[in-house]
Amino acid sequence: MVCWGGCWECLKRKLKQDIPRYRRVIPWRCPLFLAIWDGDWDVAIHRLKVAPWEAFYKIEDSERTPLHLATMPGIASPSTEFLLKLIKINPHAVLVSESDNTGSTPIHFLCSNQYTRENFSLVRIFVETALKEQARTQASVSVHRRSPLFIASVGNVPADILDILVQTKRFVPWIAPWTGTETIEEEQHADSPLLNLWSRCRSHPDFFPVNDDLMSKMREIVDFVLDRDLESSALSTNGSENRSPVLESWVRIVTLFRNPCHMATTPTLLYRVSTLYSPLPDLVEIVCRLFPEQLLEEVSISSSCSEIPLHAVLRNVWYDTNPKLIQNVIRTLMTAQSESLTRIHASTNLYTVFLAASTNITLDLLFEMMRLAPNALQLQRIAFSG
């Protein structure tokens, strides 16, 4: 571990290799903390020049570093110049291992501060710094339920900011762990960024009923967002001047589904929304209406097995923590396209109705399936005899 004091040049050399040790101080005895609290950014920048080791102080009660304090929502109009200088001196402060006593990091604060949460380039720098420091130090990672992505979903942040956070899931688990878009096999809290955004969208008076014109624009947004180059920054600007509040909310929702997926092929949007750990039946219904062709479109889950969305839901129904919601999803999928009930599941060689019979769905739902697919028994007999 590196001590905070001593020769600054020596400290800088050791910081390239080690994890810094912080000194706990009383904030009003530290000129840097006082300058930040007063919003005197010229003085704060001067302190970084003459006493850069103060960047490695922590407030003894709250465990907050100067970087925490400078990004907090209570700090008005923080200086971008100061933040960039500070994070360059102490990049380690952005990591979750240096969270304050509420479990928050500077990235959490950056996403909730009204003066910084729309600063695309600043958020990107903080996130990229976190990724580099995490890789360099291999610091411990504790996933806090209120992730930066969750905080960002509560505020009205641009979709570009959400996109920056979502893409980190390929590297670290704490910036965007509970996106609400993981598949059913992954742990997922019911209270998620997706639920926050979807509740806001569906409650808008212009959303229901979803007319043909709105559906056409929503389909265009899905194609644009999911196919968009990762390096592009046009989510919030491309066509935004013509978007209604409903469509802006929809852009944010679809952005959450851009998180990388480790499957043989890229799953369809319907497959993704159907296999959420905490399902949203009304969202599934909307996507069924937007992309009815995806009801029968198979997604490769391995090199030797493909399945349609209904099969995926049935295959994982045992793991679901909310049987009522998952059975509503099943009902939505099968009524939207009854032909899905007579599709065979490759890995089990069972038709949909019999795949459902092997799960713990209710008898009422199973009888509904059999009424919609009366020839399922005959098809299954043929499959077994063949």
From TrEMBL:
Query: What high-level taxonomic lineage is stated for the organism?
Result: Eukaryota, Sar, Stramenopiles, Ochrophyta, Bacillariophyta
> What name goes with this protein?
Uncharacterized protein
Which InterPro entries does this chain map to?
Answer: Ankyrin_rpt-contain_sf
Name the domain of life this protein comes from.
Answer: Eukaryota
